[in-house]
């Protein structure tokens, strides 16, 4: 894809789409939280409100939607994987589903010019079908596409082919400025082709959306703390430090992939936005 001239985006809308429930160990392997000493062996596991969000970015050259959250039919769609028992999408209200969130902003699927997937796990790619036939340009990392379409069978972990098999993706490689002020950051480790997104805004400055390259503030550290769901641990550590370096150089606001406390503290659509 052709890189654009560096400018700034116009607005960022953060769409909170409810939460899954899960054992925190899936997201964080940290002493005192999920790793118990022998004196704490009777303490119950900590279940966590694993929030999910999408990001709508308005730029002078088009509108971009970052990720699509979980589908309404999550329980039946995820059943082949068995993971619906571990990540129930049970903390969501009618107004928090993606279609409702877009509607609150007066946005229809056909208004989206670019649909960018940070990666193709089922809690990020679950609503790709909403954009079928709309003309939206679907984008993911080339290594993510290679992996997601390359394995045998219907699913591999949280990659579920029914989410994305009918989609026609354009791919990027390396760090790519896709629209004015919007740069996709290569950040593998969680999956082979995970990306983060850097958005430069005139008033707010730089925002860095990590997606699952960094789950939460406790993951970021320092030191970086990994999770039970990491495809390549060596690559994951390198990606966290890459993100940290970008954030420090650009004085960025870092927005983590599933940090419930942080998400609640942000300006959320439809009432708030960043400019």
From TrEMBL:
Cofactor(s) required, per the database record: Zn(2+)
Residue ranges occupied by any Metallo-beta-lactamase domain in the UniProt entry: 51-258
Signal peptide (from-to): none
Domain of life assignment: Bacteria
Pfam families, per database record: Lactamase_B (PF00753)
The keyword Zinc appears for this protein: yes
Keywords for this protein: Hydrolase, Metal-binding, Zinc
Metal-binding keyword on record: yes
InterPro entries: MBL_superfamily_lactonases, Metallo-B-lactamas, RibonucZ/Hydroxyglut_hydro
Family named by the database record: Belongs to the metallo-beta-lactamase superfamily.
Protein name: N-acyl homoserine lactonase family protein
Species for this entry: Streptomyces endocoffeicus
Lineage, broadest ranks: Bacteria, Bacillati, Actinomycetota, Actinomycetes, Kitasatosporales
């Amino acid at each position: 894809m052709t890189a654009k001239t560096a400018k700034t985006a116009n607005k960022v809308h953060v769409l909170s789409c409810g939460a899954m429930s899960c054992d925190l160990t899936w997201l964080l392997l940290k002493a005192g939280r999920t790793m118990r000493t022998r004196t704490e062996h009777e303490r119950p596991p900590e279940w966590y409100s694993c929030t999910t969000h999408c990001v709508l970015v308005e730029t002078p050259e088009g509108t971009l939607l970052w990720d699509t959250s979980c589908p309404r039919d999550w329980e039946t769609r995820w059943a082949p994987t068995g993971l619906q028992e571990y990540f129930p999408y049970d903390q969501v209200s009618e107004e928090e589903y993606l279609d409702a969130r877009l509607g609150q902003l007066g946005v229809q699927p056909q208004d989206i010019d670019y649909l960018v997937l940070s990666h193709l796990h089922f809690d990020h790619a679950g609503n790709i079908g909403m954009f079928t036939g709309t003309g939206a340009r679907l984008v993911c990392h080339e290594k993510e596409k290679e992996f997601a379409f390359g394995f045998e069978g219907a699913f591999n972990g949280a990659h579920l082919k029914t989410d994305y098999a009918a989609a026609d993706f354009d791919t990027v490689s390396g760090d790519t400025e896709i629209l004015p002020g919007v740069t996709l950051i290569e950040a593998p480790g969680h999956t082979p082709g995970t990306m983060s997104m850097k958005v430069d805004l005139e008033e707010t400055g730089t925002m860095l959306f990590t997606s699952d390259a960094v789950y939460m503030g406790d993951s970021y550290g320092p030191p970086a703390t990994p999770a039970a769901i990491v495809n390549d641990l060596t690559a994951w550590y390198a990606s966290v430090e890459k993100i940290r370096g970008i954030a420090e150089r650009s004085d960025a606001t870092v927005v983590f992939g599933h940090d419930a406390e942080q998400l609640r503290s942000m300006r959320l659509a439809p009432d708030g936005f960043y400019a």
